[in-house]
Write a structure and sequence with these properties.
This protein has a single domain, classed as 3-Layer(aba) Sandwich (Rossmann fold), CATH 3.40.50. It starts with a helix and ends with a strand. By secondary structure, it is α/β, with parallel strands linked by helices. The chain is globular. α5 links the parallel β1 and β2. Helix content is 37%, strand content 19%. α4 packs across α5. The chain is built from eight helices and seven strands.
């Protein structure tokens, strides 16, 4: 939690309480279902919560913004972002039922009224969203067709509506098809930890 407060000093008391509650909730669930790898639990706030919140350094979601988290897994990046932006609306989806069961419980116990979790594939979901967020569920060329028709035409953020994708490593080949439009931020420009050295936020307007 200290790292979260270091990089986001303006959190409200309520936000701090919700973020602090995440670790015991995930420890409880991890004892039943392996939602997060055991070794990663030792770095829970850095590897999962802070990593998710890198998106909050790239864009500030406005009140009533509609955000879709595709392949949310255990709820990342959607849950930390929903805590960070309580006036935006978040839909977290995954095709695996046991993961959505965990996420739904976390949402309920944190009383995240701005968030819902659904077991569904992106291609089957109806609706339009300002932004789609995700954490390295597949390559970007494969991901884009899943969500291309789900981006709202109404713009009211400084960034045009589109995809915000968390990924690391050498991305030159993967991003080549989008090089005229894509923008990347190095997460290491925001966070000092060694873990973020090769990690990026990828933005693709759609």
């Amino acid at each position: 939690m200290d790292k979260i407060v270091k990089y986001f000093p303006d959190l409200t008391e309520r936000q701090r309480e919700q973020l602090a509650a995440l670790l015991p909730l995930y420890e409880e669930w991890n004892a039943q279902i392996n939602v997060i790898s055991r070794k990663d639990m030792d770095h829970f706030y850095e590897h999962h919560v802070l990593h998710s919140l890198a998106i909050a350094k790239a864009v500030r979601f406005k009140p009533m913004a509609e955000v879709l988290d595709v392949g949310t897994g255990g709820g990342f990046p959607g849950v930390p972002l929903a805590i960070m932006f309580p006036d935006a609306r978040f839909t977290l989806i995954d095709s695996i039922g046991k993961k959505i069961k965990v996420v739904s419980d976390v949402i309920d116990r944190l009383a995240l009224a701005n968030t819902k979790a659904l077991q569904i594939r992106a291609e089957q979901l109806d609706g339009e969203f300002d932004f789609v967020v995700s954490r390295a569920v597949t390559t970007l060329p494969e991901f884009v067709p899943w969500v291309k028709g789900k981006i709202s035409k109404t713009q009211y953020h400084t960034l045009h509506n589109g995809i915000l994708y968390l990924k690391g490593g050498d991305l030159d080949a993967e991003l080549a098809p989008f090089r005229k439009k894509v923008r990347t931020w190095n997460i290491s420009d925001w966070f000092d930890e060694e873990y973020f050295e090769t990690k990026k936020v990828i933005y693709l307007p759609l």
